[in-house]
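Q: Convert this sequence to structure tokens.
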Amino acid sequence: MNAHKEQPFGGFEQVSTSASSAKEEFDPEQSKTVNFLDSQSQSLSQISSWSQENMETSLSDLNKGIDIISRGHSSPVKFQVRSDISSLKPSTKRTVKRKVVSAIDTVLNGIAPGQSQALFKMIQDKDPESANSSELQEIIVKIHQESTDRNTKQQLLSLIALSHTKKDLQQLIPGLTVYAINEARKHAKTNGHGAIIPKQLPVFRHRMDKDKLDHALDFFFSPSFHQVSSFGVKEMKLDNGNTVTIPEVVRTACHATLINVYTKFCTETEFLPLSRSTLFKILNACPSSRRTNLKGLDNCAADGGASYETLLTTVKEMGNYVVDEEVQVELRDCKDSLNASKIYLKTDFKAHLRKCDKCPDHCINYSLSDPTDQHLQHCVIARIWQHRGLESHAIDA
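A:
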């Protein structure tokens, strides 16, 4: 039988065998010699943990597989390298090298008969797509390191987060956290690789009592403390981003005064209100203007305030011409009473003024005094002054 010559492979030394010689090498006597050499080599060489404990393929199974693939045209492997390859002798290295080349050529011929060299060259050649992917990866890593925006970093990392392990990503990008990798993978799976990070909408927590909030809003927006202007509009922005256009509203009392009146009203009605800080936040969120001069909006209130200023100026001028100490004390008390009544009419009086009230000093029907009626000969704020400990005088109509 003619000897079959193996094709030279990878520039290595050519190995020539024949079917008859291959069969002779499998002679039982020679197999015993191989087994003896194998056992002797194992006893003399230092067996490493990775070569003995993790070895799953025996020498006989390896030779059986090579013989089946080559159809008896390849010589069997006589021993297995169990020691460190770098410590082998040069002759042993050459033997192992020839056998490895022969085994690889046998496998490649089985995959592509007669094209083992072309197939091996294709394996050795660098994949152009892999090269481009590597260059693109380097660009992504460089931009990620130079970027300062958190969303941009997450967007770039999502391009390569699913194709690499966490350990590889941390080696590519020093200082990268596991949390950032998990967020990038979540973004890639949810929105897509490199997709724009969706804008996170603000989340509002509504912890205040709805009944208390409605109670405060009903009081704050009562007509007693607001005037609607005949011109001008205001825009109110809602939580969802929509804008509502409303008429210009003027608040006739400052925030602190309005909250003080509200807390007193809650005390009288035995209602537990919201905290003062929350009430201030509610008023700050309400789009309304504040004015001290109500001329043109509420002329009655404006004229009433001007009349009080006239009375206070008169009392002050009278004090400049009075020498008697008792009269000066009475003038100071009169000034305090005027200021107290002015504040009352601007604040508490509005909170108690209802048509259905039966109390004479709170009912609008009895707001004017009448000299002919015994019950209406005193000012409506007399009882309020007495309640506050202020001295009041009966004022005849």
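Residues 90-111 form the longest helix (22 residues).
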